């Protein structure tokens, strides 16, 4: 199977929280035509989108044309709303989590889903994670790289990671509210420079702080090939060696990278080969960032074109690693997806 792990979705009828709560930081979907809309933030266009971002039938047509068997659906990070009062952010999260679960249930042979939680309140985040996994039967949780400027290694988030490990909940970490935003508005550097740097900071924080040492069974995937993180690991190690007074772990940072996962979205076979050499092909999952402009088209193009990879390695990276990461029973999905096409039956993902 070819599974696109990194795709985003938003409900077409998402409520206008700006009108409801009077804040201008809420993302508002302003439809411009039957097949397009603008995501507005503070009265300005944050992103132009098409019906690909809300219509599962349009997505399935694209998937069929591009050879994708399944997509893993996750919220658009601008909707995280960690800045908002927790009750309002929880409402935003629940609208999206219910929509993603409904989409998965309506098309179980084509979609798996990740939920979102209001990380500004750890107790509420844990409660919503519990609902996502154990009631909605979503396959994991997407969180941002920071929470209102606090790195995700901050002590207040430890109970969240503890429960994610206990419940074996896969976490997808995606950049948002990126660092140096005052220096990156020109040239869209927020997307091309800020996001990779933001992801590196989040990954380094979780490792250096001891979160990965304390919760060694955590399942975490970093988006965009981990950003710049894979390339700074030796520098992190050097810092650990020369600054013993700053050490919070028993071993240097590189000791804790074996359990990390990454999507494949770095566009270049040289970079992807470096990622494979550093972490192993078993830790890399096809991800395209569908349906946005920076996505890889068709999904898996770089993996497909790498002669250095065996057919088995490609098979794992294109699909099987995602099923393993998301705790989905591969054989059941494969068999029942085929049966679904031929006999109208739906697969049953196992969490």
UniProtKB/TrEMBL annotation:
Pathway: Secondary metabolite metabolism; quinolate metabolism. Transmembrane segments: none annotated. One of its GO terms (molecular function) is aminocarboxymuconate-semialdehyde decarboxylase activity. This is 2-amino-3-carboxymuconate-6-semialdehyde decarboxylase. Monomer. It comes from Alteribacillus persepolensis. GO terms for cellular component: cytosol. GO terms for biological process: secondary metabolic process. The lineage of its organism: Bacteria, Bacillati, Bacillota, Bacilli, Bacillales. Its EC number is 4.1.1.45.
């Amino acid at each position: 199977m070819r599974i696109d792990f990194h795709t985003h979705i938003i409900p077409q009828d998402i409520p206008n929280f700006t009108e409801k709560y009077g804040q201008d930081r809420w993302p508002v979907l302003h439809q411009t035509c039957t097949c397009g809309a603008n995501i507005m933030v503070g009265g300005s266009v944050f992103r132009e989108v098409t019906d690909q971002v809300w219509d599962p039938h349009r997505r399935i047509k694209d998937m069929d044309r591009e050879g994708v068997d399944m997509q893993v659906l996750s919220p658009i990070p601008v909707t995280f709303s960690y800045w908002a009062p927790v009750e309002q952010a929880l409402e935003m999260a629940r609208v999206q989590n219910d929509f993603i679960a409904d989409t998965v249930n309506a098309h179980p042979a084509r979609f798996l889903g990740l939920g979102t939680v209001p990380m500004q309140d750890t107790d509420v985040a844990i409660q919503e994670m519990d609902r996502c996994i154990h009631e909605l039967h979503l396959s994991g949780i997407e969180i941002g790289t920071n929470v209102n400027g606090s790195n995700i290694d901050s002590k207040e988030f430890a109970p969240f990671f503890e429960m994610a490990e206990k419940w074996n909940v896969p976490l997808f970490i995606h950049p948002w509210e990126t660092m140096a935003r005052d220096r990156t508005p020109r040239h869209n550097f927020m997307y091309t420079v800020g996001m990779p740097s933001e992801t590196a900071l989040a990954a380094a924080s979780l490792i250096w702080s001891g979160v990965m040492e304390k919760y060694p069974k955590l399942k975490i995937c970093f988006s965009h090939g981990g950003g710049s993180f894979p390339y700074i690991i030796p520098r992190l190690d050097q810092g650990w060696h020369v600054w013993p007074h700053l050490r919070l772990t028993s071993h240097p940072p590189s000791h804790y990278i074996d359990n990390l996962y990454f999507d494949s979205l770095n566009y270049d076979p040289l970079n992807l080969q470096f990622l494979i050499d550093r972490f192993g092909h078993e830790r890399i999952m096809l991800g395209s960032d569908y349906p946005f402009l920076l996505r890889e088209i068709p999904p898996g193009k770089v993996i497909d074109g790498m002669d250095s990879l065996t057919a088995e390695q490609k098979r794992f990276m294109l699909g099987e690693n995602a099923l393993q990461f998301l705790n989905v029973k591969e054989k059941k999905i494969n068999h029942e997806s085929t049966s679904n096409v031929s006999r109208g039956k739906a697969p049953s993902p196992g969490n």
